[in-house]
């Protein structure tokens, strides 16, 4: 007798897919039909599996994805925890804007965490950074400065079935934060369901672990992003405050360049919109027009 079940792929290892189901964790292989269709299940996929009386399990269907982002890829990401360092590497609003624009394009919500702020304690530089981040809070982003506070809060922020993942440049402190969150969340290494066999998880390149009522992805992805696939005339929509202001522009589809009656340019002059945000918008337009990332990001 063959039973069917649904679950979430939480890890890949040596050709096997670990799928979290209601009855436990099941280690499966994918059917050959995926190769024929040139499809490949990835971590985060919602899938159907079949289990026979002998405990043999196969992944047979990938359910519709919300998104598939990153290298290595994670599917169905609903929220990103964006780690931006205060120092080593230095804080950069330009890099912050790139990440926020990219994930806005992907329709993924973002929470910002400023790492390594303790290295700048009581310095004017930290005050400047916090003032900059205050603008991002004003336009709707949640910002955290303390890893302990974030570690305690995250399990409450993750809704049922949501997949959160970390992002940020290399060296920003993603691994340090992840270890703090794991410790605070009392992460347990789950056992393979009795449907197949028992055994501890092994380290894999990408995995999800249970946190709150959802999952947090442990992945080395999202350290570099390419904005060139974004359509030039839609870029403005991925700057949240531009998108909100555009309803008051004189012309529908205003690109906020030299059009008369532009609300974004008006708010820019009134210093309600950060000049750095607008400058980054123009730089991204150039990047998309030329179809190539800046050399320093490659």
Describe, in short, the structure shown:
This protein has 298 residues and is an alpha/beta fold. It has eight helices and 13 strands. Helix 4 packs across helix 5 (174-184).
Word description of this protein:
- This protein has 298 residues and is an alpha/beta fold.
- It folds into 3 domains: 3-64, OB fold (Dihydrolipoamide Acetyltransferase, E2P), CATH 2.40.50; 69-218, P-loop containing nucleotide triphosphate hydrolases (Rossmann fold, 3-Layer(aba) Sandwich); 232-293, Orthogonal Bundle (Ribonucleotide Reductase Protein R1, domain 1), CATH 1.10.40.50.
- The chain is built from 8 helices and 13 strands.
- It has helices at 33-36, 93-105, 124-138, 147-157, 174-184, 240-245, 263-269, 275-290, and strands spanning 3-13, 16-21, 24-30, 46-51, 57-62, 68-69, 74-75, 79-85, 109-115, 142-144, 163-167, 207-211, 214-218.
- The strands form 3 sheets. The chain has a 6-stranded mixed sheet, with helices on both faces.
- Helix 2 (93-105) packs across helix 8 and helix 4 (147-157) crosses helix 5.
- The chain is globular.
- The model is unreliable at 184-204 (pLDDT under 50).
The tally of domains stands at 3
Structural class: alpha/beta
Helical content (DSSP H or I, runs of 4+): 25-40%
* Order of secondary-structure elements: EEEHEEEEEHEHEHEHEEHHH
The percent range for strand residues is: 15-25%
Number of helices: 8
Shape: globular
Beta strands, count: 13
Strand order in the largest sheet: 10-9-8-11-13-12
Uncertain ranges = 184-204
CATH homologous superfamily assignment of the largest domain: P-loop containing nucleotide triphosphate hydrolases
Overall pLDDT metric: 86
Query: What is the CATH level 1 assignment of the largest domain?
Result: Alpha Beta
Distance between the termini: 53 Å
Report the major sheet: 6 strands, mixed
Radius of gyration: 22 Å
Could you name the CATH topology of the largest domain?
Answer: Rossmann fold
CATH-defined architecture of the largest domain: 3-Layer(aba) Sandwich
């Amino acid at each position: 007798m063959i039973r069917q079940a649904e679950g979430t792929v939480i890890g890949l290892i040596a050709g096997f897919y670990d799928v979290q189901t209601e009855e436990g964790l099941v280690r499966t292989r994918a059917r050959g039909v995926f190769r024929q269709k040139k499809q490949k299940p990835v971590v985060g996929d919602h899938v159907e599996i079949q289990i026979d009386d002998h405990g043999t399990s196969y992944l047979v269907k990938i359910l519709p994805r919300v998104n598939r982002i990153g290298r290595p890829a994670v599917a169905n990401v609903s929220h990103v925890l964006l780690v931006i360092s205060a120092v080593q590497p230095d804080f950069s609003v330009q890099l912050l804007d790139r990440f926020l624009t990219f994930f806005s394009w992907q329709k993924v919500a973002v929470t910002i965490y400023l790492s390594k702020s303790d290295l700048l304690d009581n310095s004017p530089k930290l005050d400047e950074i916090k003032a900059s981040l205050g603008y991002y809070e004003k336009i709707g982003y949640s910002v955290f400065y303390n890893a302990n506070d974030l570690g305690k809060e995250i399990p409450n922020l993750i809704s049922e079935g949501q997949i959160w993942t970390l992002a940020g440049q290399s060296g920003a402190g993603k691994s340090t934060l992840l270890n703090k969150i794991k410790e605070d969340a009392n992460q347990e290494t789950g056992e393979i369901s009795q449907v197949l066999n028992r055994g501890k998880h092994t380290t894999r390149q990408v995995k999800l672990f249970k946190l709150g009522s959802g999952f947090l992805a442990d992945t080395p992805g999202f350290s570099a992003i390419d904005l060139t696939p974004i359509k030039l005339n839609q870029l403005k929509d991925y700057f949240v405050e531009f998108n909100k202001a555009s309803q008051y522009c004189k012309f529908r589809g205003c690109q906020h360049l030299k059009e008369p009656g532009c609300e974004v340019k008006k708010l820019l002059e009134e210093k309600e919109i950060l000049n750095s945000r607008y400058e980054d918008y123009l730089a991204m337009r150039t990047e998309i027009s030329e179809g190539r990332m800046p050399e320093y990001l490659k």
